[in-house]
Amino acid sequence: MKKRILSAVVAAGLAISGVANAAEYQIDKAGAHAFINFKIKHLGYSWLTGRFNDFDGDFSYDKANPNASKINVVINTASIDSNHAERDKHLKGKDFLNVKKFPKATFESSKYEQVSETEGKLTGILELHGVKRTITFPVEKIGEGKDPWGGYRVGFSGETTLKLKDFGIDYNLGPASTHVTLELHIEGIKK
């Protein structure tokens, strides 16, 4: 009985120390070394690609306990950039993002599950266009280490495909354009 209690105390201590050792990272400024890109089929004939130019966030990560990792991202929806001013105006309007009513999109993780040394699954709440939905998508750890300026960095990449109607965006672009793919490339600088 004493051995079981001692084992439980040791396990709890290890779990707590794993959380306490998690380092906090600030996401590198959008456009510098972090990107949120999107792509959607245009009428089924080609891809329309773009990005969000303004976003911020932070995350915690401990390679000794990666399952305790967490991330929060806030996107300025008006920063959408598809490399075409008139199209961007339409994307910001009521047919799509409605940026006046919904100026921000957010993602807050609730769970990270490590699958291999460099791969995992991230689950969390995405709020887009005023709709909150739980999503899960694969994440790849790109690398980590010291930078030339005395800091410490770690980078991740992930991709997910969203059904537009699930987020209240039902503008008819045709049957080939019902889903959008989001790509997140995040580099964090240890705080």
Key phrases:
191 residues; disordered N terminus; Lipid/polyisoprenoid-binding YceI-like domain-containing protein; Lipocalin; eight-stranded antiparallel β-barrel; mainly beta
Output mean pLDDT. Answer: 89
CATH T-level topology: Lipocalin
Supply the number of helical segments.
2
- Ranges where pLDDT stays below 50 over 5 or more residues in a row are 1-20
User: Helix share of residues?
Assistant: 10-25%
Which sequence of strands runs across the widest sheet? 1-4-5-7-8-9-10-11
Number of strands: 11
Keywords: Signal
Domain Lipid/polyisoprenoid-binding YceI-like: 24-189
Pfam families: YceI (PF04264)
Organism: Pseudoalteromonas luteoviolacea S4060-1
